[in-house]
Design a protein that fits this description.
Strand order of the largest sheet: 2-1-3-4-5-11
Structural class: alpha/beta
Helix content: 40-55%
CATH architecture of the largest domain: 3-Layer(aba) Sandwich
Largest sheet: 6 strands, parallel
Shape: elongated
């Protein structure tokens, strides 16, 4: 009993932090709870006092006061294998973590692909466990956005769902990249370099990125006065294996093609493998352009020309938008659209 009381008395308190920092108790509380209504000087003083005293907030007690758990979930609707293998997902996680750096929020990551995984995740997605949800790699049949809305949990989507491309679609909070514009740049570049038969490996058509990148390809082809040849379009799921299979089919059906735009870097890597297997030189025989500008694009053979999308910035903006929703801040624009730009390398 005596030992327990001594340990309790020796634990730094909110008042002790306030005294050390030279601010009021309320200021310390706002810093601990991640409120933006604190001056940079006061925040720095409080954080220094917390570090010096070794103060650890009582999360359970704070949750009773704030009605918040200080936790958010990042739910990725893909397999664990893809999440950890493809650089896009790692970039999003880095960006989200960066966006939460100056807050007390804890990030909870979950992969939701199998029925068992989805059941566990849906059970956890309540306001008793988390304050908000980031949803990534959504397919149109995914029930999670509707479920979260019914439960009153703030959510932000990474990428605009394909269903939201319809004129009568309901609004949602999302952060996306100018996928159509980036695809147009890629295809215009290929035609500008003298390529005459430009194919594409499109992404899944139940995802917004898949639909809009294919739309950008179609727009660029038609802008040259050509008619879109459906035989020059193959469909993958953004994975490397699907890029290889699609490229093989395109070569079989279109032996005269001299360029391909793949709607993701992994699919472009798969296309490079299929072209090398077929004895095609890149870019002499067939030029290849991807989409992502993943770090490994520089290490491809040859280095990959690709569309750069600011993946980490996308993650940061997703976190910022979700924090604003959790804090009930005024959000004049629920959509954030980031620019995409072409990066020229040796594959095209």
């Amino acid at each position: 009993m005596t030992t327990q009381r001594t340990r309790s008395l020796g634990r730094p308190t909110l008042d002790a932090v306030a005294a050390r920092a030279g601010v009021g108790r309320g200021t310390v509380s706002r810093v601990v709870n991640g409120s933006p209504q604190v001056s940079p000087e006061a925040r720095a003083a409080v954080q220094a006092a917390i570090a010096e005293l070794g103060y650890v907030p009582n999360r359970a007690a704070r949750a009773l006061v704030t009605q918040r758990t200080d936790s958010i979930a990042l739910v990725v609707s893909e397999s664990e294998e893809r999440v950890f293998a493809e650089p896009f997902f790692a970039g999003i996680v880095r960006g989200v973590s960066s966006g939460l750096l100056d807050t007390s929020m804890q990030l909870w990551l979950a992969m939701a692909q199998s029925p068992a995984e989805r059941e566990r995740i849906e059970h956890h997605l309540t306001n008793q466990h988390i304050d908000g949800v980031l949803l990534l790699s959504l397919h149109d049949a995914d029930p999670l956005p509707t479920l979260l809305e019914q439960r009153g949990l703030p959510a932000v989507l990474g990428g605009r769902p394909a269903r939201m491309l319809q004129p009568d679609a309901q609004d949602a909070y999302y952060v996306d990249v100018d996928n159509a514009g980036g695809a147009r740049q890629a295809v215009e570049y290929l035609f500008g370099r003298g390529r005459r038969t430009v194919a594409t490996i499109a992404g899944p058509q139940d995802m917004g990125a898949g639909v809009t990148r294919l739309s950008g390809y179609r727009d660029a082809v038609e802008a040259t006065g050509r008619t879109v040849d459906e035989r020059l379009i193959a469909y993958g799921d953004f994975s490397e294996a699907s890029g290889t299979a699609s490229m093989r089919r395109l070569l079989e059906e279109n032996p005269d093609l001299d360029a391909v735009f793949a709607a993701s870097d992994p699919m472009a890597f798969g296309a490079l493998r299929a072209l090398q297997e077929a004895g095609c030189r890149v870019p002499e025989d067939v030029a290849v352009v991807g989409f992502d500008d993943a770090p490994i694009a520089r290490q491809a053979n040859p280095p990959l020309t690709t569309v750069h999308q600011p993946i980490e910035e996308m993650g940061r903006q997703m976190a910022r938008l979700l924090l604003a929703r959790i804090r009930h801040e005024d959000i004049p624009q629920p959509h954030i659209l980031l620019d995409a730009s072409l990066v020229e390398r040796a594959s095209a």
